[in-house]
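During the reporting period the student researcher (J.K.) took over the structure-prediction task from the postdoctoral fellow and processed the backlog of single-chain submissions. One of the processed entries is reproduced below for the supervisory committee.
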Amino acid sequence: MNTLAIVLVLAAPALLLYAYAVYPALLWLAGRLFRQSVRSDSTDWPMVTLTVPVYNEARNIRQKLDELLQLDYPSDKLQILVISDASTDETDAIVAEYASRGVELVRLPARRGKTAAENAAGPAARGTIIVNNDATVRIPPNALKALVRVFADQTVGVASGRDVSVGAATRQSNRGESQYVGYEMWLRGLETGLGSIVGASGCFYGIRAHIYDSTFREELSRDFASALMARASGLRAVSVDDAICYVPRTATLNAEFQRKIRTMARGLETLWQWRRMLNPVRFGLFAFMLLSHKLCRWLIYLFAPLAFVGLAMLAANSLLKEYFPASSR
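J.K. obtained the following structure tokens:
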């Protein structure tokens, strides 16, 4: 009984230590011995479809489109595609104003969520590379070229941008989120050096059109699954440090907590759908990285409540020994 209780108490801290300290240390050590480079020397720019799923973004969409039209990328090789998830404000009308400048609008008849909007982008996309981007984030003019350039390496199926968490200094913001995002980007850099990351940034990432799934299940996490799709196709997903994406912080810790819950729930369901990727015989190092980076982190939160059960068991056993010493022999 004591052994079980101790295991319950220590499981969450042990997973925390492994996922956030031991695993990165192992990647760093392995990277000193074995490092896989990414070829990015091509100047033959492919056709790119840049998608922006939106719902009631009238406040942001004009600035977003002006930003995208200023990207340093050949205009004849760039399709800007806005997918409106049945917006009820002026979003669609504002997007329509940009039709003469090449911006295209696809409208869903009923609201179904971001994943459904991204699915709708597939049939309308003309690019060999599809880049997903959120309406509320900012990308500097050179970021798209930096992201697309790595697709010159034919082993790359997915390229993920580098998130930079930003927020107004006067706003109550979760500044710890900024440190966490920086840590996560550093870890993805280590994983890239060993072959592949295990999940892309949902705010800004590119994927080869031939592995883009337009029937992707709407309750799953596409950005996470994109790296799994690439690996299942014999390709890899990489993080691109120069492809910067400025992501606004959530306003409060509670809002960030709720977002993390949704992310973990969708991530676990996505991993279950793609559980075959955890097979080290078939997927080798990628399976180990997927287990360490994703599953172990999520298990921390599942095991944490059990620590209190373990403590209660140890306390009860201690009381039994104190008041009934003979019974404990």
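The committee noted the following: Residues 42-136 form a domain with the Spore Coat Polysaccharide Biosynthesis Protein SpsA; Chain A fold (CATH 3.90.550.10).
J.K. will present the remaining backlog at the next meeting.
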